[in-house]
Amino acid sequence: MSHQSGITGGEELQTLLGKAVSDKKTRMIKIVIENEELKAETVANAEGDERDDYDKCILPVLAEKECCFVLYRLDSEGANGYHWVFISYNPDWAHVRDKMVYASTRATVKTLFGVDYIKQELFGTVPEDVSLAGYDKHLESEAAPAPLSMEEHEKEEIRALEVGAEIGASTKKALMATGVQFPVTPEAEAAIKSFKAGDVTYVQLSLDGANEIINLELAATLTCEEAAAKIPTDIARYHLFQFNHNHEGDQIESVVFVYSCPSFKMAVKDRMIYSTAKSPLLGQIEQEIGIEIAKKLEIEDGSEFTTDEFYSALHPARSVVNQKFARPRGPSGRKGTSRLTSRSSSSAKST
């Protein structure tokens, strides 16, 4: 499952790429994400042929801990312009959140540039992967009798993304196809277990993107209204709430998981990190800790954290269709409706 980041390029980048496809002077373009926008950080001109310029242009622009995209022009041409190599570089020591954002923006860059101009595509985690020697190995692999399928290529990319994503010994370390799993701190895990034991009725968790961990914000015994007042209005949070209520005469205890996210007050990157980390967190709560969650909800803010919302989600109203009683038809052959008259009225008329 792939996620799209929503990040795109501005007019300046689009103009540059539009001219570069047929410009014999431009050899290399390095593209990075800054302030949630794609930008050209470095542009290099051709000095020799494609093999002479390759390492000179590409290797110096690769940083040890920074992801990037590189477009490299070959000397060969097609019907629409020059052929290009598209490089997606996700180094081992880059933050997991950056790897995720760049991976989810790769398709956008290719579409923005034009997939018809891309003859070869490379993916690397170290400079050697995308060097001239690495490019030659890629060409050899392409020419091999039994090349990898697209599905196998995607699996290799996922494995490459997992390299260096050390997030703690107590939790699974992986960049999952369904999201990114961040480790839960010992304090947060203890609070979730206390919630399971019934010691508290409300737990609030936050995601620390810089340190790539899930922290405990609050664990307490609160009413629904009190918990709603604790929900921030400018940042996302995860919530566990013990919703005790009465339904059709039965007292029910239901665990509700709530993901609160003020959409228009958070950056795109932060919203995506919270969203993709949600499923792995739920898996840990349900499968590892063993909490049965009756309902999973997403809300904008605390105004939607109410007993009415929870009750409606847990017990949807059943629609009842009131069928009107069909009056039976009278005997065939009768016209109109007979009217009963009293005998006294008939006698009066006859006299």
Topology:
Layout lengths: L10 H10 L5 E9 L2 E9 L4 H9 L9 E10 L4 E8 L6 H18 L4 E7 L2 H4 L1 H12 L6 H13 L12 E2 L2 E2 L5 H12 L4 E7 L4 E8 L3 H6 L7 E11 L2 E11 L7 H21 L6 E5 L7 H8 L28 H8 L1
Parallel strand pairs: 4-5, 11-12
Antiparallel strand pairs: 1-2, 1-3, 3-4, 6-7, 8-9, 8-10, 10-11
Q: How does this structure look, described?
A:
By secondary structure, the chain is an alpha+beta fold. 34% of the residues lie in helices and 25% in strands. It has helices at 11-20, 50-58, 96-113, 127-130, 132-143, 150-162, 186-197, 224-229, 268-288, 307-314, 343-350; strands spanning 26-34, 37-45, 68-77, 82-89, 118-124, 175-176, 179-180, 202-208, 213-220, 237-247, 250-260, 295-299. The strands form 3 sheets. Strands 2-1-3-4-5 form a 5-stranded mixed beta sheet, sandwiched between helices. Helix 9 links the parallel strand 11 and strand 12. The protein is elongated, with a radius of gyration of 32 Å. The model is unreliable at 164-177 and 344-351 (pLDDT under 50).
Would you identify the regions where 5 or more consecutive residues have pLDDT less than 50?
A: 164-177, 344-351
Distance between the termini: 96 Å
How much helix is in the residues?
Answer: 25-40%
Strand content: 25-35%
| Count of strand segments | 12
Shape: elongated
In what order do the strands lie side by side in the largest sheet?
2-1-3-4-5
- Series of H and E elements: HEEHEEHEHHHEEHEEHEEHEHH
Radius of gyration: 32 Å
Largest sheet: 5 strands, mixed
Look at the helices and sheets and give the structural class.
alpha+beta
> What is the tally of helical segments?
11
Mean pLDDT score, rounded?
84
